[in-house]
Design a protein that fits this description.
CATH class of the largest domain: Alpha Beta
Number of domains: 3
Strand order of the largest sheet: 2-1-11-10-12-13-14-15-16
Number of strands: 26
Number of helices: 17
CATH superfamily of the largest domain: ANL, N-terminal domain
CATH architecture of the largest domain: 3-Layer(aba) Sandwich
Strand content: 15-25%
Distance between the termini: 71 Å
Structural class: alpha/beta
CATH topology of the largest domain: Rossmann fold
Helix content: 25-40%
């Protein structure tokens, strides 16, 4: 026996890691500092702590037990923010549901997650009412938000009480005990379901804790950062930023509707220092009409993910005073686990070269164990030459427990001791990775691999293009050819011939789109373009 074996874990030298502990510190050290701002509502960190404790105790009083699923269908409001602490305080698992899902998918999630209690904003009552028809045993709590702009049919009360009445059932005196095992589930997030039904991704307390610390380190998040919550909190738990803000006792400014005018107003009014969002959010800002803009004379740091930001967008963001950091991750990895960490030597590069660097996904987060680009179907690393394509593999403490109630999919995702992302990338000689495509999005034309991302990058350089997506279109001769779907800027004009001619100037001939479709692009609630929808449209063009 080693001498070290005589020293077991005790309460003096071991505590299960949980992001809930960050709230305890924030409320104790900075009790009066603002934690959440939403319209006319203001909550300090002491307020959020007390409300989270009341929520946890109320859930216990309603019979919620350890490991039970508490679902929420809510916009970015204080209720959803504080539930990130209150639900796990009760020992339950927080399941945040995408507010834009169809009735059938909501119904599937409620059933598959084994939801015991649902907290829902009344704005979404039409879809929810239909989804609940098959789940009559679920207790519903209503969020009644005066800031919601309701359409006809919305706003119906479906629950037994309001959220405020629920809090009245609990006390803030004695918070429930913290999780005893950091491997316990803290959240259940469902994937976008682009092929078949969405899968339930289980997060653990340990991963949420370390992801939050990793974000502070990677982003250089300062104490009392002022953060605009433009990322939907139903998406990867809002990139885990509610828990992250508790570390630095920051301020979350929540807005219900994401638009350029609302974002500019929030930045100017609340002196926002940080926010996150997909490139489509950046596009909204740089293309906003002058009357929607508000000036600010301080730097604002922006974390963007979902697709490589086009160089033209980056340049315009820089002119606005936005400092962009590109990150990469998946629902299965608690959000972003790779960052494009800026190197001082890049300061001497011209802007096009800097933009090319910023478009890379980069290197592993400080709390990510390892990221590898491997030969597809294996775990063998590719050559770091910036050309050979491989699949991105990830492992570490910020990878999910697994897919809820799907052991087979979990085993497949973890083959060889790595999480297989399904994303194709190259690794450059400096170690930085660059995503080139999804395995399912690569266009194979005449035996040649064509990166849809590469073609899209060129399309974004065309002045009239607001959004672009490239997918494979079946072709009798070549098997597949690139098909471009383009959303033009307001008031702009372009023809298929214009776009193809432009691409011929910048791409090899076989990579040039053979057809161009001008249309509004379908998007997820987080702003990602739904390529599975476009692939079907491309097939129908035959």
């Amino acid at each position: 026996m080693n001498e070290e074996d005589a020293f077991p874990k005790t309460s003096a030298n071991y505590a299960a890691l949980s992001p809930v502990s960050f709230l305890r510190r924030a409320s104790g050290v900075f009790p009066s500092h603002p934690a959440v701002i939403y319209g006319d509502r203001r909550y300090t960190w002491r307020d959020i702590h007390d409300r989270a404790c009341r929520l946890a105790n109320a859930l216990r009083r309603l019979g919620i037990k350890e490991g039970d699923t508490v679902s929420m269908l809510a916009a970015n409001t204080p209720e959803l923010f504080e539930a990130h602490f209150g639900v796990p305080m009760a020992g339950a698992v927080l399941n945040t549901i995408n507010i834009r899902l169809d009735v059938a998918t909501i119904a599937h999630i409620l059933g598959h997650s084994r939801c015991k209690l649902l907290i829902a904003d009344t704005q979404f009552s039409p879809a929810l009412k239909a989804a609940l028809a098959a789940h009559g045993d679920i207790t519903v709590i209503d969020i009644v938000d005066d800031c919601a702009v309701l359409k006809p049919g919305e706003g119906e009360r479906l629950g037994k009480m309001t959220y405020d009445e629920l809090l009245d059932l609990g006390t803030a005196d004695t918070p429930p005990p913290q999780p005893q095992d950091e491997w316990d589930a803290i959240a259940l997030n469902y994937t976008s379901g682009t092929s078949g039904l969405p899968k339930g991704v289980l997060y653990h307390h340990r991963g949420a804790y370390l992801m939050s610390l990793g974000t502070v380190a990677a982003w250089g998040l300062p104490q009392h950062a002022r953060y605009l919550y433009t990322v939907p909190m139903f998406h990867c738990n809002g990139w885990c930023h509610a828990w992250t803000l508790a570390i630095v006792a920051g301020t979350a400014v929540c807005i219900r509707q994401i638009g350029a005018k609302a974002i500019f107003e929030a930045i100017a009014e609340h002196r926002i220092s940080h926010f996150g969002g997909a490139p489509i959010v950046l596009s909204l800002l740089v293309n906003a009409p002058e009357e929607e803009r508000r000036a600010f004379d301080w730097p604002v740091r922006v974390m963007t993910a979902g697709a490589p930001p086009p160089a033209a967008i980056l340049e315009k963001c820089q002119a606005l005073g936005l400092d962009i950091m590109h990150v990469y991750g998946l629902t299965e990895t608690f959000g972003h686990v790779v960052q494009c960490a800026w190197q001082d030597s890049w300061d001497a590069l011209d802007f096009p070269a800097q933009a090319a660097m910023k478009a890379r996904q980069g290197i592993a987060f400080p709390t990510t164990d390892d990221v590898r680009v491997a030969v597809p179907g294996t775990t063998d690393p590719i050559s770091p030459n910036g050309e050979e394509l491989g699949e991105v593999l990830i492992r570490g403490n910020t990878v999910m427990k697994g897919y809820f109630r799907d052991a087979q999919a979990t085993q497949q995702a973890f083959q060889g001791g790595w999480f297989h992302s399904g994303d194709l990338a190259v690794r450059h000689p400096d170690g930085y990775i660059e995503i080139k495509d999804r395995l399912k999005d690569i266009v194979i034309s005449g035996g040649e691999n064509i990166s849809s991302v590469e073609v899209e990058t060129v399309l974004y350089r065309y002045p009239a293009v607001a959004l672009a997506a490239v997918v494979a279109r079946p072709n009798d001769k070549w098997g597949e050819v690139p098909c471009a779907f383009i959303e033009l800027k307001e008031g702009a004009q372009a023809t298929e011939a214009d776009i193809i001619a432009f691409c011929r100037e910048h791409l090899a001939g076989f990579k040039v789109p053979k057809s161009v479709v001008f249309t509004g692009l379908p998007k997820t609630a987080t702003g990602k373009i739904q390529k599975h929808v476009l692939r079907q449209r491309a097939r129908e063009l035959q």
